[in-house]
Every structure is written in C-alpha cells, then in structure tokens.
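Annotated sample (chain length 176).
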Amino acid sequence: MPELDRLSRDELIALLVGFHARVEELRAENAELWAALAARGGGSGGSGAAPTWGKPNRPARDDAGGPKPRKKRVENRAPKLSEPTEEVIHRLDRCPDCGHRLPEGTLHRVREVIDLPAPWHIVRHHLIYRSRCGVFGGTRSPRGSQTMAILQTLFGTWSLRGLDPLEACMAMLASA
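Output written by the structure step:
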C-alpha cells in the first residue's frame, strides 16, 4: 500500500470508496454463509441441538467450581503419646542475650523419647518451652541458647590456655 501521507485528497477518496465497496461484498458473502449454515441446522440460527461431532458438555457443579474440599477425619491419626515415666522440662529462666528474667512461657512442643534398657523401658517427655523476653524482645528457647553455650566453652578454653579471649576472637575473625 502506498504511503498515505504522500497521496492527494482525490486519491485518498478513491481508496476509501474502494474499501467501502469491498466491505459491502464481504458482508453479502457473510450473509450467504450464515444462511447456508442455518439451512444445515448449525450455528446460532440453527435448532439449538448439540452437534453430533463433539462430546456433550459436563453438567455444571453446584459449588461454583474449584477443587473438591478434602473430607475431614473424625479422629486424629497422629501416633498417640505413651504415658511418661519421667518428664524432662527444657525452659530458660533468663534471656541468653540480655540476662533479663523470663516468664514461665508456653509449652512449645513435646518430644517423646523411649529408652529401652533391659529389663524395662523408660518413656521421657521432653517439654520444650518458649518465653518472650520483655527487654530484648522476641521469643527464646533452650535450643536457641546452644550457640551461647558454644561461645562460653570457647572463651573458657582460651582462658585456660592463658589467651586473652577478646584477642583470640579477633584473630579468629580476621583469619576467616
């Protein structure tokens, strides 16, 4: 198609008249095709019956689609805990970061450990508590203070060897 901005006004009008004539031809052809389709019983003007060449639509679901929700179990399927012969409580009294006294806390988890020495077995429930520190913020548990225990052991070893713990720590950090 020639550049439209280079055409004169008369040439543009002639082009527009030609396009208009082509649109009228296509409309007439389209009307003929729709009439032929309606005569065969198909299309929007047909009988409305399902076509014979495809499978029928699935009936609509009442719950507005989406996956069917999982059926809830009546009873808990988790393994039952045995009756403990001993309970080991894991609870921090003080915040390992700031030393602030911690409240009693809430039961975070119960871990069952079954020892099998001869001739009987011992069932221990390890009750692990988490407490919120009012000064430092966040919750604390004994597992989180293992890092603190490792550092205390490291500083103790350096002190026994006659090393300055701060200098030894700085040297270790510089070499990393």
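Annotation: The chain has a mean pLDDT of 78.
Annotation: The radius of gyration is 41 Å.
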